UniProtKB/TrEMBL annotation:
This protein's name: DNA ligase (ATP)
Keywords of this entry: ATP-binding, Cell cycle, Cell division, DNA damage, DNA recombination, DNA repair, DNA replication, Ligase, Magnesium, Metal-binding, Nucleotide-binding
One Gene Ontology MF term: ligase activity
Keyword ATP-binding applies: yes
Gene3D superfamilies tied to this protein: DNA ligase, ATP-dependent, N-terminal domain, DNA ligase/mRNA capping enzyme, Nucleic acid-binding proteins
Domain annotation ATP-dependent DNA ligase family profile: ranges: 326-456
Organism: Flaviaesturariibacter amylovorans
Source superkingdom: Bacteria
Catalytic activity: ATP + (deoxyribonucleotide)n-3'-hydroxyl + 5'-phospho-(deoxyribonucleotide)m = (deoxyribonucleotide)n+m + AMP + diphosphate
Presence of the UniProt keyword NAD in the record: no
Enzyme class: ligase
EC number: 6.5.1.1
Length: 565
């Protein structure tokens, strides 16, 4: 049945375009159905050659995480779909639980359009309509979405729903999109990567302005694309050559960021291209200490007296719109600088690391401020000596070492050869699985999200969740166990017999009054299935808290007089 509603305010008229929303929907499905890089690259290049310029801008924005604000919540979307297809809600929920994705569930359940979709509105039309609906009534939103569903085929409905829910997880790296753009506009990928970074608005910027050198010159906040490292193992070190050709630094656990001063303004960017200046007001003290036209690459880290503190302290400030004075005092931060990307307004990325490092040291010394620290270069004469020093990483508050070739330039994205990360082994603990839930996407039919517990006397205390680390075959085996050994069902969660033991690996541990166990883990994942162990052989809560005492986050340092660090 069709629910009859009437909008209370007219929506903007669609723009004229040669290519429609269907082209974008087909691009998303084509990319999602292939694991081959060349197939994805060809699909992106083909789209860029044929799409409307405004659609190109929005495609770049969506694929790089710049999505419009949600105007419809999941409950509303599900309710309207159920009304339209006249389906019992319990059956819709069962379908959703099986499919594992709301956008796909609705697209599958909506009746097929009996006629060929006649309309060919562009991508930007639907996005602009959704943005406009943010100022309209719920009735107007419902009218537009129901009308759109009835004008679309499966592919368009699926992608349209993804736009609404904001749930895009497309298998396209920033590097792949940059390479496709570079092929389209005949420019170097490194140039393209820089031009599409930063704080631009897809609803106002044109495709030509986005990629133009002139527009880049007027955006004083624009960061550079980050250079990322691959992991290396100890046996591979000898293949790097002479230790004298390399610079070793501690690998800090914080938020990778760029500190930018241009036009007498200060900007702070995260690696995820989030402008975070307001979240770290302490850095405002550097506005008068740094020269104009300088960009520093480094790590945002909780710190007192030049020593890094555990990342968990920083988490108290992440995601908050307004940082309170108490939070500033309890989680003081510093910027550990380890590279210089721009000096006196000139791009220094093509200069060797040795030259960039020398200038960086000058900049930090000249600033003379405790909030700006130089990331220490660790002296070593052999790889064996460095391996010994690495054993003390946790005592330094580090995750291991970064290895950088002294002659290296500052590249774009993750590259092999010149930068490596050599992390220490994670902390581990043996635990038993007590709850299971179905996954999402291709794992939506399998129980792949697990909750684990440790022993506390005769009780089992849950302490973490994990959903990665097993092979597809192992996930299938655990799924079969869950289905055979479920004890209770709470919505999508199954309680299971506490029999399967797993080794859980994690990078850090912190005290937490939000968790029943009293601890919170950083980056927990399954490191292996301990089929050689029984449930009564798992670790205890006491042993978990012993790890907390040795490696955990200390309580926040009391603020000094005057609120200084």
């Amino acid at each position: 049945m069709t629910t009859e509603v009437t909008p209370n305010d007219p929506l903007p008229a669609p723009a004229e375009t040669m290519k429609g929303f269907r082209a974008f929907a087909e691009l998303v499905l084509r990319i999602g159905s292939s694991t081959k890089t060349n197939v994805k690259l060809d699909a992106l290049v083909q789209y860029f050659h044929g799409a409307d310029d405004k659609d190109k801008v929005w495609m770049i924005a969506i694929f790089s995480g710049r999505r419009p604000k949600r105007v419809v919540n999941s409950t509303q979307l599900a309710t309207w779909a159920v009304e339209l297809i006249d389906l019992p809600f319990w059956l819709f929920e069962e379908s959703y639980g099986t499919v594992g994705d709301l956008a796909e569930t609705i697209a599958l359940l909506l009746p097929e359009n009996p006629q060929e979709v006649a309309k060919a509105e562009p991508l930007h039309y639907y996005i602009e309509q959704l943005m406009h609906l943010g100022r309209q009534s719920e009735e107007a939103r419902k009218y537009f979405i129901l009308e759109s569903w009835q004008e679309m085929g499966f592919a368009e409905r699926f992608v349209f729903n993804k736009l609404i829910t904001g749930g895009f997880r497309i298998g396209v790296s920033q590097k792949l999109m940059v390479n496709a753009l570079a092929k389209t506009v005949k420019a170097e990928p490194s140039v393209i990567a820089h031009r599409i970074s930063g704080n631009w608005d897809p609803s106002t910027i044109t495709f030509s302005d986005l990629l133009s050198e002139e527009a880049q010159a007027t955006d004083y906040s624009k960061p550079y694309p980050f250079y990322l490292a691959y992991a290396i193992e100890e046996p591979e070190l000898e293949g790097l050559g002479a230790p004298s050709e390399w610079q070793a630094e501690w690998k800090w656990d914080g938020i990778r960021g760029q500190l930018i001063k241009r036009n007498n303004e200060l900007f702070v960017w995260s690696r995820g291209e989030e402008l975070m200046t307001e979240k770290f007001p302490e850095y405002g003290a550097l506005l008068d200490q740094l020269p104009d036209g300088v960009v520093l690459d480094g790590e945002i880290i909780p710190s007192v007296d030049g020593a890094p503190l555990p990342f968990a302290l920083l988490q108290t400030r992440i995601g908050r719109k307004n940082v309170t004075k108490k939070q500033l005092q309890e989680a003081p931060i510093a910027f550990f600088a380890y590279d210089l990307l721009e000096w006196a307004g000139e791009d220094w990325r093509t200069r060797p690391l040795s030259e960039r490092r020398a200038k960086l040291e000058e900049v930090v010394r000249a600033a003379k401020h405790p909030i700006l620290l130089l990331s220490e270069a660790v002296a070593f004469g052999s790889w064996t000596e460095l391996a010994e020093l690495r054993k003390g990483s946790r005592e330094k508050g580090a995750e291991g070492f970064m290895l950088k070739r002294k002659a290296s330039t500052y590249q774009v994205g993750r590259k092999r050869g010149d930068w490596w990360k050599w992390k220490i082994d994670p902390l581990t603990i043996d635990a038993v699985m007590i709850y299971a839930q179905k996954g999402a996407g291709r794992r939506s039919n399998l129980y792949t999200d697990y909750t684990f517990a440790v022993r506390d006397g005769d009780k089992l205390v849950p302490f973490t969740k994990a959903y990665s680390g097993l092979t597809d075959k192992e996930f299938a085996q655990v799924d079969a166990f869950v289905k055979r050994n479920s004890l209770e069902k709470f919505g999508p969660v199954r309680t299971v017999k506490p029999e399967l033991v797993f080794e859980i690996a994690f990078e850090g541990i912190a005290a937490s009054n939000r968790h029943k166990s009293g601890v919170a883990l950083r980056f927990p994942r399954i490191s292996r299935w301990r089929q050689d162990k029984k449930a009564d052989e798992i670790n205890t809560l006491e042993e978990l808290k012993q790890l907390l005492e040795v490696y955990g986050t200390p309580p926040p340092a009391p603020p000094r007089e005057g609120g200084e660090r």
